[in-house]
Amino acid sequence: MDVAVDVQDLVVTRGGNRVLDGINLAIRPGVVTGLLGPSGSGKTTLMRSVVGVQVVGSGRITVLGHPAGAPELRHRIGYQTQAPSIYDDLTVAENVRYFAALYGVSRAAADGVLSDVGLAPQARQLAGTLSGGQRSRASLACALVGAPELLVLDEPTIGQDPVLRDELWARFRALADDGVTVIVSSHVMDEANRCDRLILVREGRVVADGTPADVKGRAGTEDLDAAFLTLIRTAEVA
After folding, report:
1. I need a surface site. Which of 42, 55, 105, 199 has the fewest CB within 10 A?
2. How far is CA 38 from the centre of its chain?
3. Residue 238 pLDDT > 60, yes or no?
4. The pLDDT of residue 82 is above 90
């Protein structure tokens, strides 16, 4: 498959406002794609559209050869929302094992994913008692446990310390190297530098698309923070 995610002329309107205004993207398999943009730019709406849980106004989205949201995709996509999607009255291990059971994955494999995200010591702890960063990692484990072909992550490292962030990004890179398509949103520029491709979104439109080097070159700076600000401000003027 040459293209894992194909978005054509995507328009999403909410409350009379165009949240996404004619987005066109083609994302290849095995690539880590970073979505960047100010709050309210449309990143989360774009991710929801790809996963198939967003009502769209017009356009077409094809994911792994099927229309976004098709039943055939349910066991092929892992999605971590920005707000952790876990059950507070279950332990961490029970949460991940529950999602593992839905995918037909063994308890041992589920426990292995807990170790991968650094939550093995909290396995028997109620999810409702976790810190914000731990809850985010528990949600990530639930997204990973089905061994998805497409992994969509909305701010997955928010609230994590630098060591854990580095370990998680190493995990994302290893998954991509194994052929998994990874789409991740982030506000952290050093994380953006770890992506193969960056898509900068402003007011529902793509204002930059390329490798980190391409984006910095377009802005005329070697600093990705400065490049982000330059391109956003240029888009505002336009």
Report:
1. 55
2. 16
3. no
4. no
The rounded distance, in Å, linking the Cα atoms of 17 and 25 is 21
Q: Where are the domains of the chain?
A: 83-147
User: What confidence tens digit (pLDDT) does each residue in 7-37 have?
Assistant: 999 999 998 899 999 999 999 999 999 999 8
The strand pairing partners of 95, in sequence order, are none
C-alpha–C-alpha distance, residues 133 and 147, integer Å: 22
Residues whose CB is less than 8 angstroms from the CB of residue 46 and which lie 6 or more positions away in sequence, other chains included: 7, 10, 20, 23, 35, 201
Question: Which residues, listed in sequence order, are joined to residue 60 by a DSSP beta bridge?
Answer: 8
- What does the chain look like in DSSP terms, one character per residue? ---SEEEEEEEEEETTEEEEEEEEEEE-TT-EEEEE--TTSSHHHHHHHHHT-S--SEEEEEETTEETT-GGGTTTEEEE-SS----TTSBHHHHHHHHHHHHT--HHHHHHHHHHTT-GGGTTSBGGGS-HHHHHHHHHHHHHTT--SEEEEESTTTT--HHHHHHHHHHHHHHHHTT-EEEEE-S-HHHHTT-SEEEEEETTEEEEEE-HHHHHHHHT-S-HHHHHHHHHHHHHH-
> What pLDDT score was predicted for residue 84?
83
pTM across the whole model = 0.92
The two three-digit tokens of residue 87, written as one number: 């059950």
Q: Compute the radius of gyration of the chain from its Cα atoms.
A: 18
At 125 the pLDDT is 97
Contact 183, 4 (CB under 8 A): no
CA distance 74 to 68: 10
Rounded CA-CA distance 106/108 in Å is 5
